[in-house]
Design goal:
alpha+beta, two-stranded antiparallel sheet, 160 residues, elongated, 4 strands
């Protein structure tokens, strides 16, 4: 699953070659990428090999994401596909999914949010609050994602 913004940016890059293309092991990706610090700008990640324009370097699940309020109802909360008919979360009635598979895959990220949404009805939190909530809930369950091998969430904190 790749967020829409990443999908759009990498449309022409499917089928990349070499150690950094789709399906590459994290170890090979780490060998082809390097961390760096940019004074005044923070941490960065760059390729340590020549890269062709449009070449996909790395694909990973985002640590956290949310569907914007204006897109709710038309986009699956898990895979971000647009669909006319989506299944609705039976509890909060807000989250929508393509099918039962997407709903089950999203449950770990949605279950705490679902309780919160139900508890403040009829109000609804802004997108930024929903995103921060998802980050906090994921940190509370000490969940990680494969891309944290490249950079952890704490590496990205500017107050270190």
């Amino acid at each position: 699953m790749v967020p829409a913004a990443t999908r759009a940016a990498s449309r022409g890059a499917r089928g990349g070659k070499g150690p950094v293309g789709p399906g590459a092991s994290l170890r090979s990706v780490q060998a082809a990428m390097e961390k760096f610090a940019s004074p005044g700008k923070g941490n960065g990640l760059r390729s340590s090999k020549a890269v062709k324009p449009g070449e996909l370097l790395y694909r990973a699940e985002p640590f956290a994401y949310t569907v914007s309020k204006k897109r709710l109802g038309g986009v699956c909360e898990r895979c971000l596909r647009r669909k006319d008919r989506l299944l609705r979360c039976s509890q909060c009635k807000v989250a929508r999914y393509c099918d039962v598979r997407c709903q089950k895959e999203a449950w770990q990220d949605h279950k705490r949010e679902c309780k919160c949404i139900k508890s403040i009805e009829p109000n609804f939190p802004p997108d930024s609050v929903r995103l921060v909530g998802r980050i906090i809930f994921k940190l509370l369950r000490q969940s990680t994602c494969p891309s944290e091998e490249l950079y952890s969430l704490s590496d990205l904190q500017s107050s270190k």
